[in-house]
C-alpha cells in the first residue's frame, strides 16, 4: 500500500515538532570534568573507548553535532571543533542550544551515578523548563551504609528504619523510584524473602568491605520489595533498569518474564512499573507483560545507540506488537553531556517515524492515530504516568525559549546565540496539559497572550497582554486587578455591595503556565490563579479552593476525585424582527438525528480538530434533544484538569460556532419552550490510578465500594446546599426539574438521567463505575462546583456515612419520607446558610461573596420576565 505524500508530510511534521518528555536520564557534568566526551558516541570503557572514532555511530554523531553548532564549522577538523565551540559558548549556553534544538521540554534525572564534577538537579532547571528527580534505591542504601562504615554495628532493623525514613522523606520531591535489581541479582525476585535471609545478606555486604557495594540477592530483593511498598503508598512509579549491566552479569537473568511472581503478588497490584531500555534483548517479552498486566509500562532510549539503526527499529517494533501505545514512553538515558540528549532525541524521532510510517503503509494505523501515537509516546504517556502536572518547578520563572527553529523541521537554527540568550521576551516551554504550539509554528507571530479566569458568577473573563510584556514580566509577577472583579454578578460589571469587595485594593492574576496553549484566533491562552500582592493564594481564588480541598482528600484518604463533563450547547441564529435581535434554532431536529448532524458536520469537525490540537480528548459528539442543541462528552481526568478542560472546550465551541454564523450558548434555559442545557458531571474516585468507587463483583448490593458509598452519601447529605454552587442562577431552576416526580427529593437512582444523583454501571459488569450529578450547568464556576461536591464527599468519608437505598424510578415516593430539594435558588441559598460545612472548608469570606452575588441575581431576575435575552450573551 502506498502512502499519500500529504500524509507522509503530516506524520513527519508531527514527529519533528513534538515537545519531548525525556523520562530517564542522568546529570550533566562541568566543562572541565574528566568524564570523556567520547561517551556521547559509545558505551565502551577503558582502552576500548579509544576505538569509538572508528565507528559509524561516531561519524554520524559528529556530523550531526557539527551541523548543530553552526554551518561554518568544519567537519574536517573533527571532534576538536565541537569541543572548542562548547567551551566558547560555556556549559549553560551550549546546553540550552542542545535542548532547544532537540525540543526537549522535560527531563527526569536519576542522580544515583557519581560523575566527576557533575552539576546538581537545580542547575538543570537553567537549561530545561521542567526537571524532575528519580531516586535510585540501591544507591540510597549504599550511601546509608557507607556513611556509617566507621565501625557502626548494623542490624537489618536499624538499617531498614533509616532506609524507610529516607525514602519517605524524599517521596514528595521525586517523580519516581528506580531499581538496578535486574543487573545486580536478576529479575527472579523472591517475593517471600525472609527477614533472616535479608539479615544474612546484609552481613555479607558489610563483610565485603569498602566501598560498600550491594550484591547479595536476598538483601537486594528485600530492599526492592520494601521500596516498592513505599512507592505504591506514595503513588510513585518504580523504574527498573533492564538490558545491559555489568560485564560479569548473566543477562539471561534480566528476562522480564522472571517478574511473573512479583506481578501476580496481590500486594503490588496497584504498583506501577516501567521497564527501561526497551528491555533489550527481551523486547518481545516486555511487550507481552505490558499487554497482560495493567501495572507494567515500557520505556525505550537511544542516547547511546547500542544497536544499529535497523536494530533500534526492530526493537521498537517488538515493543509495539503487543504493548498498548499508551503504555510506551521515551527516554534518552543521556549522561554527562547535553549533546547526548540531542543525539538521543534526534535518533529516536527517526526511529519512531520509520516504525509508524511502516504501520501506516501496512494499514495498521490511520494518519490521525499515528499522529496521536507520536504525541503519546514522546510526551503525553509520560506526563500522565509520572503525574508531571504536580511537579513543582522553578521553570515557571524561566526565560528559556523552546520554539527557536529546530533542525528536525529543516529550519535554520543559527542566528546569533548571543541575541537569543539576551532576548527579554523569550518564551518558556512549560510542560502543559494543552501543549500544542508546534502545530502553529513559531511563537514570534503572537501579538497578545490572553489570560483567562472565571469569576464567582461563573463568567469567563480575560485580559490580553502584549507578548513582550507577558514573557518579560507578567508570566512571573502576574497582573494586578481590583478586588471588585470577584464581586461582580451576571447583572452588571459593578461589584455587589454585600460582597465587601470594592475597587479599593488589588489582587493578582498569575498565569498557570502548565495550561498555556495556542489556538489560531487567540494565538495564546493561559488560565490564571489568583494571588495576593505578596504572591500567596488569594482566599477568593476558585482554583485554589479546588486545589486545597483536593489535597485534603489525598492527604486524609489517599484518594483523587475524577470528573468528566457533558457539554451541552445550542447553536442559535440571530435574526432581526421589528428592529430587535432575536434568536432562532439552527435546526428543527431532535436527539441524535442524522440530518442535523450532517448539516453541522463541517463545523463540528472543526471544533473536534481544535480540541484535539489542545490534547483534549472527546468521548463522543451528538445531536441533543433541543432544536439546534448538541452535546460533547469529555473523558475522565482528575477534577482539577477536568475544570480546565471544560473552560477551553467552551472557548473553542464559542469561537468556531461564531465563525459559522451561529451564536453558541450554554445557558441553562434560553427559552421556556426548549430543553435546557447542562454540564452534567460524572464523578468517581481513584487510588493509585485505580477506580475505587466500584465494588468487587458481588461484594455490594449496589455495586459500589464502601468508600464510594460513604462519599456519595456525603454528597446526598449536602445536596441542597451544593445546588447553590452547581445550579447557581435563577434560570438554573427552569431547567432543573423534569416531569420525574422523584427528582425533587434528596435521593439517588440507578441509571436515570432525570435523577439528581444517578449511578452508572461499568459496561458488561454488575458494578458501578461512577455517579452522575446532572444538576450542574454553565452558570457554575466549575472549580467551585467541583469543590462543593468534593467537600461533601469528604464529609461522608470522615463520618463513614451509610448509603440509603435507591429510589425506584418507576414508582412515586412518599414525599414525607424524604427531604425535598430546593425549588429555586432562594431555597438553595437558605440550605447553604444552614450548612456550615462549606464555610468551614471553603472559607468564610468566599462563601459570603458567593451568597451576596446570588442574592443580588435573585432580586434582579425576579423582576425580569425574559432574563435569557441578556444572559444569552454571557453564558
Q: Outline of this structure?
A:
Helices cover 39% and strands 15% of the residues. By secondary structure, the protein is of the alpha/beta class.
Walkthrough of the structure:
This protein has 875 residues and is an alpha/beta fold. The protein folds into three domains: 332 residues, Alpha-Beta Barrel (TIM Barrel); 94 residues, Ubiquitin-like (UB roll); 328 residues, Glutamine synthetase/guanido kinase, catalytic domain (Creatine Kinase, Chain A, domain 2, 2-Layer Sandwich), CATH 3.30.590.10. It contains 28 helices and 24 strands. The strands form three sheets. Strands 14, 15, 16, 17, 18, 19, 20, 21, 22, 23 and 24 form an eleven-stranded mixed beta sheet that branches. An eight-stranded parallel beta sheet has the order 1-2-3-4-5-6-7-8. Strands 10-9-13-12-11 form a five-stranded mixed beta sheet. Helix 11 links the parallel strand 5 and strand 6. About 6% of the residues have low confidence.
Question: Which tags fit this structure?
Answer:
875 residues; alpha/beta; TIM Barrel; Ubiquitin-like (UB roll); Creatine Kinase, Chain A, domain 2; 39% helix; 15% strand; globular; Protein fluG-like; Gln_synth/guanido_kin_cat_dom
Average pLDDT taken over every residue: 81
Q: If you consult CATH, what is the topology of the largest domain? A: TIM Barrel
CATH class of the largest domain, named: Alpha Beta
What does the radius of gyration come to? Answer: 29 Å
Give the total of beta strands. Answer: 24
Q: Quickly count the domains.
A: 3
Structural class: alpha/beta
Q: Quote the distance from N terminus to C terminus.
A: 49 Å
Strand content: 5-15%
Largest sheet: 11 strands, mixed
What is the general shape?
globular
Q: So how many helices?
A: 28
CATH architecture of the largest domain: Alpha-Beta Barrel
Proportion in helices? 25-40%
Family: Belongs to the glutamine synthetase family.
GO molecular function, one term: glutamine synthetase activity
Protein name: Protein fluG-like
Organism: Nicotiana tabacum
